[in-house]
Amino acid sequence: MQCPISLELVPRSSESLLEEAGIAAEYPRITHINIPDITRFPIRSVQAVSLIEERFGDRFIYVPHVRASHPTTCSCTFPSGRALVVQGDEDGMICKPWTSMGYIQTLSRYVDVAATLDPYRGSVERELRNLAEKYVAGARGFFTQPFFSLEQVQFWETLLPRHYEIFYGVSPVTTESSVNYWKEKNHAVFPTHFPLSLSAQATFARRVIRFVSKRHSTFSYRAVYLMPIRIPVGEYLEKIFTKL
């Protein structure tokens, strides 16, 4: 069974957003579109979903990211009927930000809510407890921070309950500076010999997709979350899917 695949598109502008969504539409394996909420860009995540949905309709399942630290998102209308709650930054807001748990609980009354899984945040036991609390609060799906080896994905798959919907994150990293950023900012773990070519990154994405597809079933929802943050979307997808 083929697993669902979500693609993250950064809403830098309406033109680039629709262009990249058009590229994604050419690949039937891509089932979801994730839109991060980045305050320095004029288009926010929920607005971006509306733009893409107007052009592509129900071609994709849309997942806007909403920030628990940005209280104004409470009043947003979610055209897709779903959202991914992230903590985010306070951005100098005077209002006291929500906690992720409280926001999940509130938002889940109105839309299907997903939450984050961060394998680098602390101990494995603590993260599993955190996921269980989010699940009780109302989250049904979890999108992970990117993994950089298949062994990491396999390890977490042995731990995660089958009734969680899991999107395993994959993000191409092609420069030493990006490796250092992930290590310093997110405490990410990389293999000792980590190839930086885009071809090698696409090969890794295919390996994850194949593994996750074997785990995906009627009783265990497993998916892949592609995040080409600084890589041309078209080039990355072509390298992945032409050999998949």
Write up what this structure looks like.
This protein is α/β, with parallel strands linked by helices and 244 residues long. It has a single domain, classed as TIM Barrel, CATH 3.20.20.220. It contains eight helices and eight strands. Helix 4 links the parallel strand 5 (112-117) and strand 6. Helix 1 packs across helix 2 (45-56). It is globular and about 45 Å long.
**SSE pattern:** EHEHEEHEHEHEHHEH
Under CATH, the topology is which? TIM Barrel
Radius of gyration: 17 Å
Number of domains: 1
List the helices and strands and how they pair.
Blueprint: E1 5-8, H1 14-25, E2 30-35, H2 45-56, E3 61-67, E4 82-86, H3 100-107, E5 112-117, H4 124-137, E6 139-146, H5 150-157, E7 165-170, H6 176-186, H7 198-215, E8 222-226, H8 233-241
Parallel strand pairs: 1-2, 1-8, 2-3, 3-4, 4-5, 5-6, 6-7, 7-8
Helix pairs in contact: 1-2, 7-8
Question: How would you sum up this structure in a few lines?
Answer:
The chain has 244 residues and is of the alpha/beta class. It has helices at 14-25, 45-56, 100-107, 124-137, 150-157, 176-186, 198-215, 233-241; strands at residues 5-8, 30-35, 61-67, 82-86, 112-117, 139-146, 165-170, 222-226.
Q: Which labels suit this protein?
A:
single chain, 244 residues, alpha/beta, TIM Barrel, 8 strands, 19% strand, globular
